[in-house]
Amino acid sequence: MTFGFAPSSAASTSTSADLSAASANPLARMLEPAEWAAAGIPLLRNPREVVSGLHSRHRPRPATAIVAVLDPDERLCASASFTRRPAPADGWMFRNTLLAQLRRVIPHDLRRRTPVRTAVLLYCREGDARWTEEDGAWMWGLRDACTLHGLRCGAYITLTRDGWQVLGEGRGGRRPNADSSPEPFGLSEAPPPLPRTGGAASEVLRRAAAR
Q1: How far apart are CA 148 and CA 164, in angstroms?
Q2: Which region ranges are annotated with the description Disordered (predicted)?
């Protein structure tokens, strides 16, 4: 269901012009590490636990992105993984892809005055942990997708063969990494649920975290 008002012809013309200008300059749709650090992105209390949980659930390989929604206690509400298509890095396209995945796995929070849930993005890629323009495009896309879905923009995490790193924070570790086997869930004896889950699977994780 869609809510809102039909745009005027002038607004439509302006929007079309804006989109045309934006599509001609993908470099404008990325964030530098300093911009990301200055954006007030909330810090994860236990980033390794978040990374290990997503790694165990989705078993990412290079070019795999995982978007996850966390509640205020950093418990997983929903997550989705997908493979990045071979194309130039573009924050606008990344935004659209992330927004489509979020819409599939969890309702929006646009009716709330203040976002309660937080979306984080883990991207498994080749190369080392240093920031790249592709990372900057993912950052831009995550921030914009969160705004359009009524979520807080959370951490952007890279996963390479060297390990994982929360960009903009300087926190990271060697395991898990792009080559490591998934670690068992430390809070539950049950096997990891399937990717792109919500509802009952998330309830299993919530019960496990409460133990």
Answers
A1: 27
A2: 168-211
